[in-house]
Specification:
Elements: H1 7-11, H2 19-33, H3 42-58, H4 61-70, H5 90-102, E1 115-121, H6 123-128, E2 130-141, E3 157-158, E4 167-172, E5 175-180, E6 189-190, E7 203-214, E8 223-226, E9 242-248, E10 254-257, E11 260-268, H7 269-274, E12 276-282, E13 285-291, E14 300-303, E15 319-326, H8 333-347, H9 354-371
Parallel strand pairs: 1-9, 11-15
Antiparallel strand pairs: 2-7, 3-6, 4-5, 8-9, 10-11, 12-13, 14-15
Helix pairs in contact: 2-3
């Protein structure tokens, strides 16, 4: 004859454990050792039976009091253990504990689904902000039956299969599973006389025109949430939300880097050498900048505050204009001769080309070091 283990030890709880703690411990053990999860494992089956027996006692105040005072011997006259002991059916216990796991309880009207819309805007709209109208295909609450699905003047009726609860129980031996009623799909109501407009669904499809405010400073990948503009919920439940995902078109002149804008400006050789004034583009119009004498190609001029504003907070980025010397093309014979004369004057010494002189010095030193 095997010796029974202490019920508190079986459930791994203290002797002063409360009902919720005992219940959670049994839930954990039952999910681990249940025969359906361990087919053919006799050891797991015995551990499941042991946990079940311990739970039947410790979850019953009278039996627990007898057990605490007299141990296992105190239960010998309590009607025996197992299904039906003390008027308790274990399938009810098991269904009560696991019903929420398998079905989540009765499902009420579901909130409408969220929608996503891809919106392409220009860089000007992203930087300055704008209001854009979009056409969004959507599922809306039926205006005739107001989402009930029933013909005007009638009402949904209680589902006869689940009694309006929306859930049914399926008995599998001593194991009870609770699931959504297949007749009413968990709603607890059935449409006896459906609305002719929405055909009993309570909703219909329609493309709506919405105005979206684009805040200044948005960038690629930013999302704008329009609360309550998603799909209509079932049976009058709240609508979901609409998320507008922003995509900014490439710009022919500017590249964006965070809050800064970059622009490349071609400039003539003579202006780079002699200095002068050039016009550069911005998103708000042309601006004049002064080019100092002997400016090198690649020089970056910063226009403060001419970039992108912060979406949240204050401040604006800058416009960074990079000047690049443009080699003249389609030269006349006279122009070519003048350039040749100019080149001969520069070849007399290296003081006019400090970067070239420094570069050639580095090349010379490199090859000398290779020889050693």
């Amino acid at each position: 004859m095997s010796i029974k283990r202490d019920y508190y030890e079986v459930l791994s709880v203290e002797r002063n454990a409360q009902g919720d703690e005992i219940r959670k411990s049994f839930r954990r053990l039952a999910m681990k050792y249940h025969p359906d999860r361990n087919p053919g494992d006799t050891a797991a089956e015995e551990q499941f039976k042991e946990a079940r027996e311990a739970y039947e006692v410790l979850s019953d105040e009278q039996k627990r009091a007898l057990y605490d005072q007299y141990g296992h011997a105190g239960l010998s006259g309590a009607g025996g253990m197992g299904a039906g002991a003390g008027g308790m059916n274990f399938s009810d216990i098991f269904g009560d504990i696991f019903g929420d796991i398998f079905s989540g309880g009765r499902a009420g009207p579901q909130r409408g689904a969220d929608l996503r819309y891809q919106l392409e805007i220009t860089l000007e709209q992203a930087v300055g902000g704008a209001t854009v109208e979009i056409d969004v295909p959507n599922v809306l609450t039926c205006e005739v039956c107001h989402g009930s699905g029933a013909r005007k003047g009638s009402q949904p009726v209680t589902c006869s299969d689940c009694g309006g609860y929306g859930q049914v129980r399926i008995q599998q031996g001593f194991f009870t599973v609770q699931q959504a009623c297949p007749s009413c799909r968990g709603k607890g109501k059935r449409i006896a006389d459906p609305c002719t407009t929405c055909r009993g669904s309570g909703r219909y499809r329609k493309t709506r025109k919405l105005s979206v405010r684009i805040p200044a400073g948005v960038d690629n990948g930013d999302r704008i949430r329009l609360g309550g503009e998603g799909e209509a919920g079932e049976a009058g439940a709240p609508q979901g939300d609409l998320y507008v995902q922003v995509s900014v078109k490439p710009h022919p002149l500017f590249n964006r880097d965070g809050m800064n804008l970059h622009c490349e400006v071609p400039i003539s050789f003579t202006t780079m050498a002699l200095g002068g004034e050039i016009s550069v583009p911005t998103l708000t119009g042309q601006m004049k900048i002064k080019v100092p004498l002997e400016t090198q190609s690649g020089k970056v001029f910063r226009l403060k505050g001419m970039g992108v504003p912060a979406v949240q907070g204050s401040g604006k980025g800058d416009m960074l204009c990079r000047v690049v010397v443009e080699t003249p093309v389609n030269l006349t014979a006279k122009q070519k001769e003048l350039l040749s004369q100019f080149e001969r004057t520069l070849s007399a010494d290296n003081q006019h080309n400090p970067r070239s002189s420094s570069w050639f010095d580095k090349v010379k030193k490199f090859f000398e070091e290779l020889k050693t």
